[in-house]
C-alpha cells in the first residue's frame, strides 16, 4: 500500500485508470428463463461498450487486463465450482444438446435441494443437464460458448486493477462483465459467474491489507460477497439495496438483521431500501455505510459499482440520479483509502455509461 499523502495527491490530480478486456464481450446469454418463459436478457455485451465509450470520453486512461493464474479464484471459490464453469459449455456441447435438442445454452432443470438427497451419499450425476443444478441456483444465468472466457477475463480485469492499486494508484476501476456479486463460494446465479468483488478483497488481503471493506451500491443485495466473508472479521461487507422483503432478488438474503456470525459478527451491514427511494434517502444510507466503514478502519476499499438503482433502470424500482451517483463516489472517496471498483449491475443502455462516469468522477475527486 502507500501513504495517505500520496493517495490524496493521486486522487486530486488523476482520473481512475479503467481496466478492460475485449474478451468480456464474448459472453452472450441470449436470454433468461424467467417464470418458466424465455425472456430477453438485460446483461448484454453492449453494457461494456457503452461504459467504455463514456469513460474514454470523460478522460480516463484505458488499461488492458493482464493474465493472472487461478489462485485468486480458488481463494474465495470452491475449486469444483471453478472447474464446472470452465468445462460446462464444452461438456454440454459434446453431449449434443445444441445439435440434437436445440438447447443452445446451459440451463439447469433439476436442483438437488437438501430434501432430495437427505441422508444419501453425495453423487455427481452423469448427465450434464443434471449437473447444472448443483452449481447454479436459478434459471436466469445461462452458459454459452463464450461465458467462461468472458468470466475469466473479468477476473483478470479485477486483478489488474488490484495490481495498479497495490503499486500506488489511488484507485482503479475494472470494467467487469459479466458481474459477480451474487456468486457464493460454491454456487452462481443472478447473471453472475465468479465474484469479482470478493476476489479483489481477498487479493488485497493477500498483498498486505490487514482489513478490507466492500461497499456494495448495486440495487440488489450482494448475497455472494456477504456469504463468502460472513464469518470473518478482516473483511467488512456493507450494502444498500432494494428490500428483499418487498419481493426483490435475491429474496433470501439482504435483511438488516444479517450482521455476520462467529468472528465475523458485526462485520456485515445491510440497509434495505423501500421502493421509490431517491437521492436523499439513498445517500443518507450510504453516509451511514461510509461512517461504519470508517470505524472499521480498512486499509483498502472495494466498491461493487452497480448503477441499477437509477431512475430509468428496468431492473429495480429505486430512483437515484446521476448527481446522486457522483455524490456517492465522493462520499466513498472521503474515506481516503485505496479503491478498487468493479462493475456490477446497470442495464439502461442510454444512460449507463454516464452513470458510471459520474460515480467514477466522484470517486476520483474530479469536477462534475
Highlighted features:
368 residues; alpha/beta; Arginase, Chain A; eight-stranded parallel beta sheet
Coarse morphology: globular
SS summary, helix count: 13
Q: What strand order characterises the main sheet?
A: 4-1-5-10-9-6-7-8
Spatial extent as radius of gyration: 19 Å
In short:
A hairpin with a 2-residue loop joins strand 2 (32-34) and strand 3. The chain is globular, with a radius of gyration of 19 Å. It has helices spanning 4-13, 46-58, 71-74, 79-94, 97-101, 114-117, 128-135, 147-166, 196-206, 223-229, 279-296, 322-333, 349-364, and strands at residues 18-20, 32-34, 37-39, 62-64, 171-174, 212-216, 235-242, 268-273, 300-305, 339-343.
How would you describe what is shown here?
The protein has a single domain, classed as Arginase, Chain A (3-Layer(aba) Sandwich), CATH 3.40.800. A hairpin with a 2-residue loop joins strand 2 and strand 3 (37-39). It starts with a helix and ends with a helix. An 8-stranded parallel β-sheet has the order 4-1-5-10-9-6-7-8, sandwiched between helices. It has a two-stranded antiparallel sheet with strand order 2-3. The model is unreliable at 1-13 (pLDDT under 50). It has 13 helices and 10 strands. It is α/β, with parallel strands linked by helices and 368 residues long. It has helices at 4-13, 46-58, 71-74, 79-94, 97-101, 114-117, 128-135, 147-166, 196-206, 223-229, 279-296, 322-333, 349-364; strands spanning 18-20, 32-34, 37-39, 62-64, 171-174, 212-216, 235-242, 268-273, 300-305, 339-343. The radius of gyration is 19 Å and the shape is globular.
